[in-house]
Amino acid sequence: MSDHPMMQSWRLPEFGQPLVLHTEDPPVPVGREVLVRIAHCGICHSDLHVQDGYVMANNTDKVSFSAIGVRTPLTLGHEIMGHVAAAGPDAQGSVAVGDPCAVFPWMGCGVCETCKAGRLEDCPTPAALGLRRQGGFSNYVLVPDPRYIVPSGTLLPELVAVAGCSILTAYGALRKLPPLTSRDWIVIIGAGGVGLAAIALARHVTAARVLAVDTSDAALEAAKACGATETMNAADGSAGVLARTGAAAGVIDFVGGKQTVETALAVIARNGVIVVVGLKGGEVGLPLTRLALRSLTVRGSYTGTLKEFREVMVILEREGGLDLPLTPVAFSEVNQAMDTLRRGGYVGRAVIAVPGP
Ligand SMILES: [Zn+2]
Ligand SMILES: [Zn+2]
After folding, report:
1. Which of 119, 194, 289, 345 is in the most buried spot, having the most CB atoms within 10 Å?
2. What's the 123 CA to ligand 1 centre distance in angstroms?
3. By the 8 A CB rule, do 19 and 10 touch?
4. Ligand 2 centroid distance, CA of 342 (Å)
5. 100-124, pLDDT tens digit by residue?
6. Please, what are the averages of pLDDT over each run of 10 residues along the chain (357 residues)?
7. Strand order in the sheet with 7-12
8. Can you state the percent helix, strand and coil of the chain, rounding each to 5?
9. Which ligand ends up closest to the CA of 163?
10. Chain-wide mean pLDDT for the chain?
């Protein structure tokens, strides 16, 4: 592949370590594989969890990524926008070299019953980019099948990148709420990258009003700009949410910690649905009588399906994009950007700009 420059990837050498730059020849796609030349890759909170090597299972115990089969060295990054660089012989009719595209990162094995049912992200042998396969903190990514590639036309490339996780995860969570009217309230807890995407997407998915809750006033300002009906500092607690909404028909918790889920349980209305997305971790006591008497639903949401990813791309095309705060990060500064994200230093998403050919 002498016509391609070297592949440069920021790799996690071992859990708990900073990323190191790794240089190699770019892979040659075989079969149905597609090589994508990456232009942008978002940095997600999950990348920090993978770097740490664990998430909290409950209030005290960790689940380590190595225990669930995640292996280092690993190139992180799953919010990928790029251009088709080369296609294997069996993929050549399905993609056009040079086309700008979004990449669906939540791949499965593709052949099991779960995958065949369209739930690739739930496959028992997952193959997600940046987790099980080499990801997007690189100038190239090898995609195993053209069906994971969605052309992105003239959409803003940085926005296309974050479609793979921020926007898809937000959409997957919103779609788990019941049908709501303009008299209903949704409470969105956590106005980080994914939370802001949910706030911006909400009006395209539901008629309900949105109350955004966060501990950071800067994040709340961004939430307002993204279209939140109202915003509230988390310091006002569940009493503050109840004062503003009466009660919430739906709560989406993008933090997913003990305190935020307890708030959700305190503010949810009859027949309400609580969707937990964030991976802060911990555990809560579930008031069982209340659960039954109020017909409550508490459920989780991981990311979204390939079908939902295509729906997200249709919404983005139709709306000409989505107004999200995106901060550019130089490819050479990925470690610094990870640290900044860890300190809560970004409003919205940080997106790596990969130097062109
Ligand atoms: Zn599978
Ligand atoms: Zn993510």
Report:
1. 194
2. 4
3. yes
4. 14
5. 999 999 999 888 999 999 888 889 8
6. 82 98 97 98 96 89 92 98 98 95 94 90 91 97 96 97 97 97 98 95 96 97 97 98 98 96 97 96 93 96 95 97 96 98 94 91
7. 20-24, 7-12, 74-75
8. 30, 25, 40
9. 2
10. 95
Query: What angle (nearest 5°) sits at the alpha carbon of residue 36, between those of residues 196 and 127?
Result: 70
Backbone φ and ψ for 294, nearest 5 degrees, come out as -100, 5
What are the tens digits of pLDDT across the range 197-241?
Answer: 999 999 999 999 999 999 999 999 999 999 999 999 999 999 999
Report CA(166)–ligand 2 centroid distance (Å): 6
CA of 44 from ligand 2 middle (Å) equals 5
Domains of the chain by range and CATH?
7-165+304-353 (3.90.180.10), 177-300 (3.40.50.720)
Q: Which helix (H) or strand (E) holds 33?
A: none
Tell the residue number behind the tokens 């009466």, with chain if given: 246
Residue 136 in tokens: 């997007």
